Amino acid sequence: MSGDLRSGFERVVTERLELRAVSLDDLYGLFAITSDPDAYRHSPCDRHTTVDTTRAWIERAAARWRTDGLSYWIVRRRTDATDEPVIGVGGVQRHAAGGWNLYYRFTPSAWGQGYATELSRAAIAAGRAVDPQEPVVAWILDHNHASRRVAERLGFTNYGERIDANDGVLRLMYADRPPRDPR
């Protein structure tokens, strides 16, 4: 795909969350999460140690809105306040192996409140609307039990350990339907 795609999902409101296409406007709010060691308890090597790392991550994610019509959102709680802090990031992006990659990261103070499930449901719906032929896949580290529970609540099936084509890491592959190449 090429050009500037508009999917209509650049802003989504759920029951408790406001989801907006990731942009550099939220650089420091997102860096507070991506640099927090507690937020990366399950994958400490992925934590951002500089604001420039977060800036580059945002630029790549923002570019996906233009090329694929869908990418990651900045997450805030729904309120009337215009200065509500960023509590997370997530959504779906095209994955190197095909399909939609479901991803989220929240500040630890937002954990355990169902936000990951709420965000994920919106992301799955958006992915299916933009390209319903592609499965939605969550690549989860075996020891990340909280994310595994989210995938199970979503009705995803665990297809076992696979090498994640995006980074070469062995992860569990959960998906909303059988992947094109299950092995």
From TrEMBL:
Domain of life: Bacteria
Ranges of residues in domain N-acetyltransferase: 17-176
Protein name (Swiss-Prot/TrEMBL): GNAT family N-acetyltransferase
Native species: Streptomyces humicola
